[in-house]
């Protein structure tokens, strides 16, 4: 029996044997093993990140051919070229507006869905656009913003709201039949001669859309009435041909709802509206006046807003981005909200705070770290925005919707190929992203130190 088995002190363990050998770290004894594991990642990092960045910096110092050294001239062009300045301005708008609105909406959705039974279903619906690629979302919103209300959802809604409060013109695009004695002036049509009581006036029109006739009845020739100016306004057109110009035929329709005014010396002295069969009657004050059909009868139908025009193209595209990324913000903020101690919220309510005060003074400060994460992530994402702008903006508005990432593509591979300028834009974009990344990394370090 030795000392160890007898309960005495154990003898010294020789180096290289026993427990000491097993607890030594692999990195401490075999550095080549760690290097072997890290080598593939380092090679990929160098090939996909370090080398492209270094080559872009190098290429940005040369001209379009790549042979002439121009120094920092390409960087100077970033602030003198009009297209790039527009792209830079739009990038500033994107960075300020898109992340802020998306984060705010995500916060509102996350807080409100906590209080409803169907909150999970609502979150699913709001988050669902994240499953759609930028390309598909761009195609969807190109149709949503279509100018034609028959195709574009945005304009269909807008036109419906507009027509609810503003009566549309009864016969957009209609005009008098040639040689009918009506002259055009500012979209209105006026008779060349004054009209007299007892002598019915005929107002034949053409180019009336079939859908505008509505409840129109067959046109009826007006009869003379003592002390009144009478007449008929009708569609002077017979389907299949036939009929007589400026004469009411049996198959021709009257034009109801047409406004007719009597004008003397440039002043309207009487006004009326045609009946279902196109007939109208004006009081004795219209005797000796000229008849005028106001331009409001023939104004083109309201066609909605030009969402993809030069003025609204950038806000419209930002709207499509928010539609996609508000769900991302909502999910992250909802996860942070789930970890907020409910005791603090209840204590604030017990102390007399209303829901708005609880939200503003308790919930938002506690969610500040999560809100910063979401905001910074979206800012980095927005600085690289490309596909939505490229797909949604039509060619006529592409210049006004331009952003740096799109200008990088156009300068490097577009009609005026200048990869020196394109590389300068790429380096400039990297410099814009670095401060945001630094803030994010600093925040992560603070979180770890806690």
UniProtKB/TrEMBL annotation:
Membrane topology per record: Multi-pass membrane protein
Residues covered by the ABC transmembrane type-1 domain: 88-440
Cross-referenced InterPro entries: Ig-like_fold, MetI-like, MetI-like_sf, UgpAE/MalFG_permease
GO biological process: carbohydrate metabolic process; transmembrane transport
Subcellular location as annotated: Cell membrane
Coiled coil: none
Transmembrane segments: 32-53, 92-112, 124-145, 322-345, 366-393, 421-441
Main location (coarse class): membrane
UniProt keyword terms in alphabetical order: Cell membrane, Membrane, Transmembrane, Transmembrane helix, Transport
GO cellular component: plasma membrane
PROSITE patterns recorded: ABC_TM1
Domain of life: Bacteria
Family: Belongs to the binding-protein-dependent transport system permease family.
Protein name: Sugar ABC transporter permease
The organism's taxonomic lineage, starting at the top: Bacteria, Bacillati, Actinomycetota, Actinomycetes, Kitasatosporales
């Amino acid at each position: 029996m030795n000392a160890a088995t007898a309960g005495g002190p154990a003898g010294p363990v020789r180096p290289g044997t026993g427990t000491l050998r097993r607890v030594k770290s692999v990195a401490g004894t075999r550095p080549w093993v760690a290097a072997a594991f890290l080598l593939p990642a380092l090679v990929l990092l160098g090939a996909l990140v370090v080398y492209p960045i270094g080559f872009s910096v190098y290429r940005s110092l040369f001209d379009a051919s790549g042979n002439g050294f121009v120094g920092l001239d390409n960087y100077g062009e970033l602030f003198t070229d009009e297209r790039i300045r527009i792209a830079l301005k739009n990038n500033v708008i994107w960075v300020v507006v898109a992340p802020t609105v998306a984060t705010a909406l995500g916060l509102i959705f996350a807080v409100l869905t906590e209080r409803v039974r169907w909150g999970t279903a609502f979150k699913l619906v709001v988050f669902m656009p994240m499953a759609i690629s930028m390309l598909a979302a761009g195609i969807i919103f190109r149709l949503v913003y279509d100018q034609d209300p028959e195709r574009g959802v945005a304009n269909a809604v807008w036109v419906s709201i507009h027509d609810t409060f503003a009566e549309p013109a009864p016969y957009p695009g209609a005009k008098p039949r040639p040689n009918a004695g009506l002259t055009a002036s500012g979209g209105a049509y006026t008779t060349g001669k004054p009209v007299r009581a007892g002598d019915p006036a005929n107002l034949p029109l053409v180019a009336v859309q079939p859908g505008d006739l509505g409840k129109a009845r067959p046109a009826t020739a007006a009869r003379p009435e003592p002390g009144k100016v009478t007449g008929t306004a009708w569609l002077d057109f017979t389907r299949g041909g036939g009929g007589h110009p400026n004469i009411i035929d049996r198959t021709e329709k009257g034009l109801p709802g047409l406004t007719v005014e009597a004008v003397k010396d440039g002043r309207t002295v009487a006004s009326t509206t045609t009946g279902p069969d196109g007939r109208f009657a004006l009081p004795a004050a219209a005797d000796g006046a000229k008849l005028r059909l106001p331009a409001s009868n023939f104004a083109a139908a309201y066609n909605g807003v030009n969402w993809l025009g030069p003025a609204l193209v950038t806000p419209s595209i930002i709207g499509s981005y928010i539609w996609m990324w508000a769900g991302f913000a909502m999910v992250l903020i909802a996860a942070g909200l789930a970890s907020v101690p409910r005791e603090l919220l209840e204590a604030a309510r017990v102390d007399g705070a209303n829901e708005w005060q609880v939200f503003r003074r308790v919930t938002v400060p506690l969610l500040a770290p999560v809100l910063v994460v979401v905001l910074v992530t979206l800012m980095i994402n927005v600085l690289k925005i490309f596909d939505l702008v490229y797909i949604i903006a039509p060619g006529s508005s592409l210049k006004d919707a331009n952003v740096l990432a799109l200008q990088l593509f156009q300068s490097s591979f577009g009609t005026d190929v200048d990869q020196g300028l394109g590389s300068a834009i790429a380096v400039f974009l990297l410099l814009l992203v670095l401060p945001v990344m630094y803030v994010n990394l600093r925040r992560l370090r603070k979180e770890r130190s806690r």
